[in-house]
Design a protein that fits this description.
Layout: H1 2-11, H2 20-32, H3 38-50, H4 58-71, H5 74-87, H6 95-99, H7 103-113
Helix pairs in contact: 2-3, 2-4, 4-5, 5-7
Organism: Edaphochlamys debaryana
Protein name: Pentatricopeptide repeat protein
InterPro entries: PPR/CCM1_RNA-binding, PPR_rpt, TPR-like_helical_dom_sf
């Protein structure tokens, strides 16, 4: 991930402007670590918002929910769903697919956002 982050920083420093999908790739990469690198995920989200003015949509939140489902981190998954609700982010067609494997998160999503 260090190499991926350095390439990202180099590419999107002066030449190009990243989009949310670019950030979602980083989020998934940090989430694929064992254990997930939540501090790096938080830093990436902060950079996305502050440096580039990109607010997370369902694309970013789905990436985070995928990590929570894979690691069975239900508390953090509920926090992410709460953050989606607080930010006014509507789930997209993939959000329910992402949480389908974890009944508790699927139920929580439906109660909080659907």
């Amino acid at each position: 991930m260090e190499l991926a982050q350095s390439i990202f920083d180099e590419m999107f420093g002066d030449f190009l402007r990243p989009d949310e999908v670019s950030f979602a790739v980083l989020l998934r990469g940090y989430g694929a670590s064992d254990p997930p690198q939540w501090s790096r995920i938080d830093t990436t989200l902060t950079t996305m918002r502050i440096k580039y003015g990109i607010e997370p949509s369902a694309v970013s939140f789905n990436a985070l929910l995928e990590v929570c489902c894979r690691t069975n981190d239900l508390d953090r998954g509920q926090d992410i769903i709460d953050r989606m609700a607080a930010d006014g982010v509507e789930p997209d067609e993939f959000t329910e697919e992402v949480v389908a494997r974890r009944r508790a998160l699927r139920s929580y999503l439906r109660k909080a956002l659907l």
